[in-house]
Every structure is written in C-alpha cells, then in structure tokens.
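Intended use. Records like the one below are meant for learning the mapping from a protein sequence to its folded structure. Do not use them to infer anything beyond what is encoded.
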Amino acid sequence: MSMSLRLLAVSAALAFAGAAFAATPQASAAAAPATKPHTAQQQRMVDCNKQATGKKGAERKTFMSTCLKGGSAAAAAAPTAKQAQQEKMKTCNTDATAKGPKGADRKTFMSSCLKGNAATP
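Structure written out for the chain above:
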C-alpha cells in the first residue's frame, strides 16, 4: 500500500511541476513582443501589408513580392507577362466564339490571334 501512495505522490508532484513549467513560458512569450522592436524586414512587411488591403489572389502576391523587395507601387501594379498572356487568351477565345470556327479552323484562328495576327478563318 505504501508503494502506491508513493507512486501517487510522485505523480501528483510531477503533474504540478509540469503545469507550472508549461505556464511560465507562455507568460514571458506574451510580454516579449511588446518590448522588442520590429526588424527592418518585419516593418517593411507591416507597411506592405497595409498597402495591399483590397488586393486579392495573384494581384496581391505580385504586389507583396515587389513591395517587399523595395519596388514601387507602380511597378507592382504593372501586369506580368503571364497576366498579359491570359488576357490575350481570353480575348482570342471570345473572338473565336463570336466568329464560330470549328475544329482545325478554330485552332488556326487561335494560333494566329495569340501570335498577334488577327486573321479571319
């Protein structure tokens, strides 16, 4: 019986010590950020994040990348080559649908349109 009492006492002591130890780092971690100033990169992240409000998806990603590298907002607003190609694809697809070519004629039209040659089928 005395063995089980010892085991119970040791278990209780370990549980109490573990709870006290686990609570200590959380209290100091919560106080640490308030006293520590931001690094230059962290401050840039805060500033760029404020400027990027309202932007979403690829536009936000492009803006944040340019801003964090120290680029201007005008450079971030310029469309990338991928975005320009996507816009061209949308325009050509709309034109092809309106003109109605099918099969090989549509393929030829799309190829010409994407190259910048707006040839009619």
